[in-house]
């Protein structure tokens, strides 16, 4: 792709490394290692490599394809599968990754079988569901039994620890109580197996809040962090923490203006169903200057969270390949100019997975 082709996703690797370093130092101060989660940017290897440069303990993703790409790129950091594996991908999990999060006995047996066939040892972390109601053992006795099975019977698996995930489906907060529950499960297992577990993995970006509050139970020694490093928006915007020491603009979207015209703000004619099957409503603001840019829903998903860096430009709407901007208050914008946008997590996963977007690393 021509280096100057638009639209572009500009990725500032220096800013990213700053964010990784800052979060990692903060974690290491309290004895917590980071698994750097790369699914937010579709595992782009050039970006994932920054986690290795910064010395993260693990590089993690929910997608085996991304971990495979990162491995082929030459990354040596141990890889972690954080979506509980499908039975059908067990062989790939063992071949590509070093450690996986798990919650099914069937899958554990299959991982063990594949590890034996490949003459490997694969580490597993057993997930406890503490109320968020996504993945994880619900019954603590059942979890203990699975742990004992891994420890005693599945000789090509290594029981590396326990973990949990909160704040994803049930929007449950990582309170000290919840995390202490996880530590209690770990200690119950440790008592039965007669040794200490290597990892207690206490969640994702949202668990940083508990850590910053100084309330992370001391035995939690791993967090799996994506958003809080790559975008660093949630803790500031939703949780009210001061994250001013992290860059919020590692990623910038740049789109090119195709048309600039004064047009009505209310469609002219009988309003029917739009190309997405919806009957939209429009506010009539009279004639205003608008610019059309060459990027659309196919590239970034929903325009609802798309925000131009220039506060005088607003996103009016979008179809598959076009985005309409109100530039009435934005000074002189012409065909061929470019407009920069902030990128939210939902937009980022689309943008990074699209071949239509020119990725520029600076
Ligand atoms: C996505 C994911 C994470 C990382 O979440 P962030 O909010 O981006 O930090 C951690 N653990 C699991 C199991 C995940 O699926």
How is this structure best described in words?
The protein is an alpha/beta fold. It folds into two domains: 31-231, TIM Barrel (Alpha-Beta Barrel); 251-361, Beta Barrel (Elongation Factor Tu (Ef-tu), domain 3), CATH 2.40.30. It has twelve helices and 16 strands. The protein has helices at 13-28, 45-53, 64-72, 90-96, 105-117, 140-152, 176-193, 207-212, 227-230, 234-237, 297-300, 345-353, and strands at 8-11, 33-37, 58-61, 79-81, 99-102, 122-128, 157-164, 199-201, 222-225, 251-264, 287-293, 307-308, 314-318, 323-326, 338-342, 358-361. Strands 1, 10, 11, 12, 13, 14, 15 and 16 form an eight-stranded mixed sheet that branches. Strands 8-7-6-5-4-3-2-9 form an eight-stranded parallel sheet. The two termini are 17 Å apart. Bound molecules: pyridoxal-5'-phosphate (PLP). Residues 37, 39-40, 62, 82, 165, 204-205, 224-228 line the site of pyridoxal-5'-phosphate.
């Amino acid at each position: 792709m021509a280096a100057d082709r638009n639209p572009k996703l500009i990725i500032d690797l220096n800013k990213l490394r700053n964010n990784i370093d800052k979060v990692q130092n903060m974690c290491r101060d309290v004895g917590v290692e980071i698994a750097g989660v790369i699914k937010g940017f579709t595992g782009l290897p050039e970006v994932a490599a920054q986690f290795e440069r910064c010395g993260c303990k693990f590089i993690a993703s929910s997608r085996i394809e991304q971990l495979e790409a990162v491995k082929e790129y030459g990354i040596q950091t141990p890889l972690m599968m954080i979506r509980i594996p499908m039975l059908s991908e067990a062989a790939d999990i063992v071949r590509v990754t070093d450690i996986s999060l798990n919650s099914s006995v069937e899958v554990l047996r299959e991982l063990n079988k594949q590890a034996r066939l490949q003459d490997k040892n694969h580490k597993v972390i057993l997930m406890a569901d503490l109320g968020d109601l996504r993945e994880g053992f619900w019954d603590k006795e059942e979890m203990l039994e699975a742990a004992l099975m891994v420890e005693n019977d599945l000789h090509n698996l290594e029981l590396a620890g326990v973990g949990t995930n909160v704040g994803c489906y049930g929007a449950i907060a990582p309170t000290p109580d919840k995390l202490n529950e996880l530590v209690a499960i770990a200690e119950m297992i440790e008592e039965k197996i007669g040794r200490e577990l290597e990892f207690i993995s206490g969640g994702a970006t949202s668990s940083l809040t508990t850590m910053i509050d100084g309330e992370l139970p001391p035995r939690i020694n791993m967090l799996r962090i994506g958003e809080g490093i790559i975008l660093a928006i949630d803790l500031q915007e939703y949780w009210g923490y001061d994250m001013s020491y992290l860059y919020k603009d590692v990623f910038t979207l740049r789109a090119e203006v195709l048309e600039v015209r004064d047009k009505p703000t209310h469609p002219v004619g009988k309003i029917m169903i739009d190309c997405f099957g919806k009957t939209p409503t429009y506010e009539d603001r009279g004639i205003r200057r608008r610019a059309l840019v060459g990027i659309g829903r196919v590239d970034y998903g929903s325009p609802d969270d798309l925000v131009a860096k220039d506060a005088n430009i607003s996103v009016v709407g979008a179809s598959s390949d076009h985005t309409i901007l109100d530039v009435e208050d934005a000074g002189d914008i012409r065909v061929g100019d470019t407009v920069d946008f902030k990128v939210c997590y939902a937009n980022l996963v689309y943008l990074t997975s699209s071949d239509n977007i020119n990725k520029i690393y600076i």
